[in-house]
Amino acid sequence: MSQKSQDMKTKIRILLADDHLVVRMGIASILSFEKDIEVMGETDNGADAVRLARELKPDVVLMDLKMPQLNGADATMQIHATNPNVKILILTTFGTSAELKTAMDCGASGALLKNSSQAEIINAIREVVSGKCVMNYEIQHGIEELKSVPKMSQRQLEILNLVAKGFSNKEIADILGVSLETIKDHIKKILVRMGVSSRTEAASLAVNLQLVTG
Q: Domains (ranges, CATH) in the chain?
């Protein structure tokens, strides 16, 4: 086997999935200086990330969470389900988010903040390929925080989202077509589950944890 063929065989093949062109260009530029890493494809949406992961069979997908057509968490789940050998490294702006936790639960091999240094990103790629799970302290702490938040029903999340948007109990009752007492009862349960004492605290915590859009 020629040296060139051997080099190609041993290169870590990367698929970039991020809806911001500047981010993809920046990462691709960083990785272009590494002899053992090759960017083999790019996409700006989650649906194409799933398709390209199937077609190109990369070693690592660098996956953004917020993308059109299919978010990073759902794309991670689909890629991992069809090819669990592909390592998925999440690059995110937020250290804490429900989507990030979902992505990790669905098979992501690690997560880094987008403001991580060049060395951190490169080292993380090599580490996930070797089978390690990579997370910096802020992300790990954020996921632990999310684990401590009890699961809520879809209806409670719907109400919490409206609370975060500033609607009163009466307005929420009208929007959802239920009685005011029903909304009050739901909110009491929400406060208990979240360990807070007011609607304002519940809304603030929910937005910070990205349980709702706010």
A: 3-146 (3.40.50.2300), 154-208 (1.10.10.10)
